[in-house]
Amino acid sequence: MASQTRSAGLGQSIARGGGASIHWGSPTNIYTSNNQYSTASLDQYESTHWLRATNFGFDIPEGATIDGIVARIEKKATGAEITDASVKIVKSAVEVGDEKRIFGNWPLSDTYVQYGGVADLWGLTWTVDAINFGFGVSIAALYAGEWGELADVDHIEIIVYYTEAVGTNMKIKASGAWKDGDELKIKVGGAWKPGVKAWQKVSGAWKVIF
Fold this sequence. Notes:
It contains one helix and 16 strands. The protein is mainly β.
């Protein structure tokens, strides 16, 4: 099993509905872990819009099977009683799939919290293109206290686990695009042949040996 880890390339505060009203400030601060936060200021029983992280720049090879998705969100709160309101995967620029919120208060210092797993597809079916384009994760926060607190997110990254295609489905990256292995040609005995096959001259004729 192979994996790729990427950080968000686009952070946005996206309206969530259902009474959620609090905007995330500086959503582009989630690109790196540097103590510069995207922050939401919450009063009693308020909840936030989505903090949506996308544009991760994955380059999963064509033909691969997606095995699992892990989102790691570095977050903290300035006091107790801020919790996850919702955590969803983003597919084709829409929050969908299994609900991954974790019950319990956010940590009081920067901590990476993991959602999903190496064999967790978040209740969805995935293609390579769905991972490489329009893919991400969103989080919303809820405050259940009385005096108001800040929810801070420092960094969001995703790990995608996948199994590469083998055999005749092997892919080769050529000129920045993934191609079927059979599209790679070599000249054998004056004729162009699939490059992923092994050729040997037997009794005067070129033969595929594997």
